[in-house]
Amino acid sequence: MAFLDKLGELARTAADKANDGLEINRINSDIVIQKGNINEYQRELGMYYWAKFVMGDQLDEEATAICDKIVKAQDRIKELEAEIEQVKADREAEKAERAEQKRLEAEAAAQEAAERAAQKAAEAAGDVEITDADGEVGRFCGGCGAPLAEGQKFCGACGKPADDVK
Fold first, then answer.
1. In sequence order, what DSSP letters do the residues of 95-125 get, joined into one string?
2. Torsion of CA 22, 26, 31, 35, to 10 degrees
């Protein structure tokens, strides 16, 4: 069962990494597009300035508008890079949460196994008293497991003496 759990965890991890890779590639693609836009805007700006330079004119609003496009593209790149960091941080948080859940499940399983072992050891010794989740004590026959009433001397199901209840 632990092997299947480990295999399932590996499959989830692989799927998460694949999804993260796809998301990061999509975001990186957007970054490349924005960088391409910047290059195009810079080329436009360069052509514009060159034409102005050749003509001997001063810069005007169009040059400022092109510069604004470059600034917007740079801001978008920063947003996209922040998204990448958020995707990575979210994945790390999920991984830590799964590890903590696994640890808690392992602790609970170990506790349950210890309780079962203690109960089996007590049952092997004869009639036993068992405390349930509400703290109520019950007596059970060590021979057949039938419940025993308080003060009962013999098991009503198998007839075993109930004197040596621990």
1. HHHHHHHHHHHHHHHHHHHHHHHHHHHHHHH
2. 120
For residue range 7-66, what is the model confidence (pLDDT) as tens digits?
788 888 888 888 888 999 999 999 999 999 999 998 987 887 766 655 757 777 877 677
Q: What global pTM score does this model have?
A: 0.46
Question: How would you classify the pairing of strands 147-148 and 137-140?
Answer: antiparallel
Contact call for residues 140 and 127 (beta carbons, < 8 A): yes
Residue 130 sits at φ, ψ, to 5 deg, of -125, 135
Q: Which of 64, 79, 75 is nearest to 37 (CA)?
A: 75
Quickly tell me which residue has 């069962």 as its tokens: 1
Q: What is the DSSP string of 29-44?
A: HHHHHHHHHHHHHHHH
Instruction: Report d(CA 142, CA 124) in Å as an integer.
Output: 7
d(CA 141, CA 158): 9
Our measurement of the distance from residue 132's CA atom to the centroid of its chain's CA atoms, rounded to an integer in Å, reads: 34
pLDDT digits (tens, 9 = 90+) for 100-148: 999 999 999 999 888 888 777 766 655 445 555 555 557 777 777 788 8
